[in-house]
Amino acid sequence: MAADPKKLMGFETSADKKVPIRTGDWDAMKLALWRANSAWETIAREATVLLEACKHADGCPGKEDEFKPCLPGCPDREKRLSALVILGASKQCAPIDAKKVADGPYFAPSREYFSEVIAELAAAQIEIERLRVAAAVTTTTETTETP
Questions:
Q1: How far apart are CA 138 and CA 67, in angstroms?
Q2: d(CA 33, CA 95)
Q3: How sure is the predictor about 57, in pLDDT bands with cuts at 50, 70 and 90?
Q4: pLDDT by residue (tens digit) across 93-140?
Q5: Torsion sign (Cα): 51, 56, 58, 61
Q6: Angle, helices 23-53/77-93, rounded to nearest 10 degrees
Q7: 11-33: b or e for each residue (b if 16 or more CB lie within 10 Å)?
Q8: What pTM, to 2 d.p., does this model score?
Q9: What is the dihedral of CA 76, 79, 84, 90, to 10 degrees?
């Protein structure tokens, strides 16, 4: 009985199975991931600004190190704790790798898709011209009927 060594060593599991995903869905997911990443970066930057703006009492260990607690007499102790919670959540929940979709690889459309788009464009141009002629006929009949 020949067993697959990768499966026996645990390198390959049932979770490694690949499933097909539509390209539009995949691009939408990448875009959502990129938006989440940029939002978390903004949150982290603003929380850092809040931390830097906090006032501390003399000799407060939290002034120099964000991991040390503030003294009970610090004026912005609660504000600093809230900013630290926000900063910690942004570090924990931020995606590891999220590139802008425009920075990803480009795949040219198939000939069939391109032909469909051109055909729809031609049909839309014909429809616009037909509506333009109908509007011109309506306008001339209205102007000639009025005394």
A1: 77
A2: 7
A3: confident
A4: 766 665 665 666 667 778 888 888 899 999 999 999 998 888 887 766
A5: negative
A6: 160
A7: eeeeeeeeeeeeeeeeeeebeeb
A8: 0.47
A9: -150
